[in-house]
Amino acid sequence: MKVFLAGWMSRPFCIEQYLNGGGNDIDVFLAGEHPVKNGRLATWEDVNILESYYYCRDNRFIDGLIAQIDKKRFMLDSGAFTFMSNAKITTDWDRYVQEYAEYILKHDIKLFLELDIDSVVGIGNVEKLRNKLELLTRRKPIPVWHKSRGKQYWLDMCKEYNYVAIGGIVSGEIQRSEFSVFPWFIKTAHDSNAKIHALGFTNLKGLQTYRFDSVDSTAWLYGNRGGYLYKFDGKTIKKIDKPAGTKIKSRAVAAHNFNEWVKFGKYMESR
Q: How many CB atoms lie within 10 A of CB 142?
């Protein structure tokens, strides 16, 4: 299982340090896992990254990252969740897809998600946007299943696409009590020789239980927000609360937690 680390754009200091040629913060952030040479990242060979097109377009840091990272280890989200979670944001969808496709081609991105904005424009328009994206890129995106699409739609997706995803976990569309259906989704995908990705699936017990091919997570950010450290113990990630009365250095904590999640990701990928 590949664990894609998401949420880069919520750490602007990383971008600043990268563009300014390194510095103490970036040295700490990399923590020996990814050496810096001449102020630039030397390698990203062990890291799986997911970013949202909505946030990374016209961003030089992400452009540099994509140029260095193995294309099999970078996944681009369409930014659909941003639209679904904020009704005030509107756009010209045809133009958005056009620009999304241009970005995909410019950076030769192999793994990218469709605009699963079912709740915004309806499944019919989602399919039209998906078809346009396929025509423009001459590549198949990763379609994202939502409960409203139904069982047969999932089965058809698995037959037509070699990589499929389950959405609605972060939004609560799929409740924790419903996680028991995941083995069926995984089996039906694999029976059709399709890989399966779980969007925003950060349940640590679930990561050990359900054999998704890949997931993405912003959990490495939670410790910095909540004031605790993550520690990889050789098999899983454990949370260590800070001692009472102490203060945390937010950037150092983010750096530490990121690297512990990288270690966890390596372990999960080797299983």
A: 25
Q: Please report where in the chains the tokens 């680390």 appear, as a residue.
A: 5
Record the tokens describing residue 129, joined without a space.
Answer: 């946007």
Distance separating alpha carbons of residues 5 and 48, to the nearest angstrom: 6
**Can you name the residues that pair with 142 across neighbouring β-strands?**
113
Per-residue pLDDT of the chain (271 residues; tens, 9 = 90+): 999 888 765 454 443 433 344 333 322 222 223 333 333 333 456 778 898 898 888 777 677 778 877 888 899 999 877 776 676 777 899 999 999 999 999 999 999 999 999 988 999 999 999 999 999 999 999 999 999 999 999 999 999 999 999 999 988 999 999 999 999 999 999 999 999 999 999 888 899 899 999 999 888 887 767 777 888 999 999 988 877 777 767 767 777 787 788 889 989 998 8
Q: What is the DSSP string of 128-147?
A: HHHHHHHHHHSS--B-EE-G
Bridge partners (DSSP) of residue 49 are 5, 74
165/198 Cα distance (integer angstroms) = 6
pTM of the model: 0.85
Backbone φ, ψ for residue 263 (5° rounding): -60, -45
Q: Which residues pair with 176 in a beta bridge?
A: none
In one-letter notation, the amino acid at residue 129 is L
Q: Are 75 and 53 in contact (CB under 8 A)?
A: no
CA of 87: how far to CAs of 90, 120, 134, 174, 199, in Å? 7, 8, 26, 21, 21
> What's the rounded Cα separation, in Å, for the pair 101 and 124?
20
DSSP state of 229: E
Amino acid at 49: I
